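In these records, each integer encodes one residue's backbone shape. Here is one protein:

___
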Amino acid sequence: MTMGIAEIRAHLPHRYPFLLVDRVVSIELGESIHAYKNLSINEPYFDGHFPDEPVFPGVLLVEAMAQTAGILGFKTMDKTPADGSIYYLVGVDGLRFKRPCVPGDRVDLFASIVSERRGVWKFDVRSEVDGALCASASILCANR
């Protein structure tokens, strides 16, 4: 199953400039998801991070991975923000950055469900560019 931007927008409350998932390549409900974010030099954060050597901010990379996990959770529960359901990022464990992401990169975003208890979901997430690991972590999201 793939998802274009219209369906992504239906499953995430984020909007420009904070919507950080461009397309879902595949999703296995209750299991895992593969999505991506295309990085363009026209993105507003590259003006200041850093003007002479633009780098995708690490906190935004974590947010992109969390949004990917959020889509997986929403789709698995068959809920949307329009239903009054929202995910909050409540924890990040074992975060490691391995390489920077720069304009022109297609950042592949992966998330898999580890567990869910009383509305708190644990996901393993990672990001890659051309098969090279950029970042990885375990994250906690609370469904409210």
In short: The domain at 5-143 is CATH 3.10.129.10 (Thiol Ester Dehydrase; Chain A).
